Amino acid sequence: MIFTRKALKLLNHRLKCSGARLINRRYLQSATNGVVPAVEVSFSNGRNMTISSGKLARFANGTAVCQMGDTAVMVTAVAKAKATPGQNFMPLVVDYRLKNAASGRIPMNFMRRELGPSEKEILSARLIDRSLRPLFAKDYRNETQLVCNMLAMDAVHSPDVLAINAASMALSLSDIPWNGPIGAVRVGLNDGEVLINPTRRELQSSQLDLVVSATKQNLVVMLEGKGNVVLMQDLLKAIKQGTREAQFIIHEIERLQKAYGRHKREVDALPEANSELVQAVKSMCEMRLREIFQDAQHDKISRDTAVNEVRSNVIDKVWSSYPDTDPAAIGEEFNKACRDIFRELIFESNRRCDGRDYDSLRNISCQVDMYKPLHGSALFQRGQTQVFCTVSLDSPESAMKLDTLAALDSGGLKAKNFMLHYEFPPYATGEVGRIGPLGRRELGHGALAERSLLPTLPHDYPFTVRLTSEVLESNGSSSMASVCGGSLALMDAGVPVTAPAAGVAIGLVTKYENNDTKHLQDYRILTDILGIEDYMGDMDMKVAGTRKGFTAIQADLKIPGIPLKVVMESLQKATDAKSKILDIMGESIKEPRKYRKDCWPVSERLAVEPHQRAQLIGPSGLHMKRIYLETGTTLTAADDSTFTVFAPSQAALDEAKELIDGYMHKERVPDLEFGGIYTAKITELRDTGVMVTLYPSMPPALLHNSQLDQRKIAHPSALGLEVDQEIQVKYFGRDPVSGFMRLSRKVLQGPAVGIPRSLNKAAASENSS
Predict the structure, then answer these.
(1) For a Cys staple, 417 with which of 40, 184, 399, 670, CB 3.0–4.6 Å?
(2) Are the C-beta atoms of 51 and 39 separated by less than 8 Å?
(3) Those residues with Cβ within 8 angstroms of residue 507's Cβ, 6 or more apart along the chain or in another chain
(4) pTM of the predicted model, to two decimals?
(5) Which of the listed CATH numbers 3.30.230.70, 3.40.50.2300, 2.60.120.200, 3.30.420.340 matches domain 36-260?
(6) Which of 674, 677, 672 is nearest to 726 (CA)?
(7) Helix crossing, 275-293 with 300-321: angle to 10°?
């Protein structure tokens, strides 16, 4: 819609009269003169980030473009005007797609266009979602979609952090109710120096790759990172610095929001229940729920069953007294009362529902070497969370090849030789469900566990490692159980990890008023949380690492930010718990297994002279195919003179060596003297020359037309040469590149310079004797 200058002034006047400043003089100038509202954020290291709005995609409720270097990301925010009736959650959808066109490339699939979202795109979308969701109002139920569109990508800056800041800007300028803005920065660490928004090259040498999302007053909203065994003090310094740098982004977005931001629409308040009904629900369930939540004998199933029985009983009785009330509304009031009672008991009794104090771990048991055919296996049990991990070792050719964009994002890495695949079947929670394509949750949990274990693996390991983690039972923190079980399985498989790794989940329960989480009235930090504590609590911080330092961290919040003090205390409790878990894991296996298992694969390097390569490979690779089909052993050319031999077992390698020796074994090769004159036997006439042999077992070598005669000839028949005819040639060694013999007959057409030697007759006399 296009307004005239007069209409804009009139609309601005009416909005001012109603207390809302939607359009001011600067917005009027931008609308009529084409000026794009933009700010430039300057960080402490001198790098700049530009955020603009008002030029692209103006039909959306809010649009922003964030640019750093030559990487630019546009994010649009659109929300429906009304919430869907009966909606009891906030339906936020984030679509993040890396486009080949943004980096000047063409997709290399059959359709030559972008297909479904990749693993990196899904993880980046979850990163944005977790940064924004805590700041939406609790009563907001309108369907909201954020679309992140890559406008341009260079090989220097990553677009995911830019997308978070662009999303913050788009929501702040829109009329969508959101309690932002937030700011996000990527933090690196090199030789103890903190790097803010490092380039891809800097990240390759960085010990830390951490994304920090924060809001006003230095409140942390989201943490996501990986590190190469980062010390506690270095991680704390990086989080503090990242939070401070995010304030520069927040300040500039607020400045644009005051100047150009649209008036926020009113949140449709949820219908308030009758106070008598609320009191009736609470009075009927409070004592029974308190008894359930204080009974440490309950496990996950029995506790859920008892709570569901109370829920059904309360809904039936209250509905009979208030027949005009929707049973769903009664159930919602019961859920609120249940949550309040659960949280109050944590503050009152200083105990949790399973009888533990705040810092205690659940009972842990470990077992390795479960089944003999497996290269490595482990069963890790923590409370009612049970994970079965297996390790498979294969050849380097089994590494996962990355596409162009994924390789660009991973710092030039073209293949992954370590993969962790996480599986969460429905029976893990006693439910009936469909087992189908990999879900976003499974992908995210697997990626977190993979990041946790990757720094402990050696860089020059000759095998590709696939670690599978199947959750058999789940009652909280199955991803961190996958880290513990995965580390045990790797050591059982003999993988030379630098140190064992473990992970733990830290929870948080808070008290605050008026949405002010900066000044918490009270809070409790919970170590090794249960599933119900995750659901009822305010934070789920997953921390993994070795005894020395951290390898991965992920913090998700349900409240709009927490102070740095709480983050520091949570990390300290995670460090203490991690050491206790490693002590228990050490009782099963302390270091990588030294003695070999019969099922372990074997890898060796085989030296082959350049002129023998064809002999080993065979016609059309026939020899290599036969070796693979008969023994399962693969041969891969490492360079011109070396092959890598991979066998699934030592027995298979021994069998393959016998076949290789059979292909490579020939009669004794005479030592040819450089400059020596030998009698050669013609085996074939060709247009380019004749094929000759100097001894019976020799592969035919080409004597070119140019070396047959001092005269120029076009075909050997011009000299009357025939097959099986013997001629004298002079030997000049082998070609250093191809390994072929260099022979000449032309140089002998002159005065006699030596006596010809017949290796064919010598070999025949040896055989006869």
Answers:
(1) 399
(2) yes
(3) 525, 526, 527, 529, 533, 534, 537, 538, 539, 540, 541
(4) 0.81
(5) 3.30.230.70
(6) 677
(7) 160
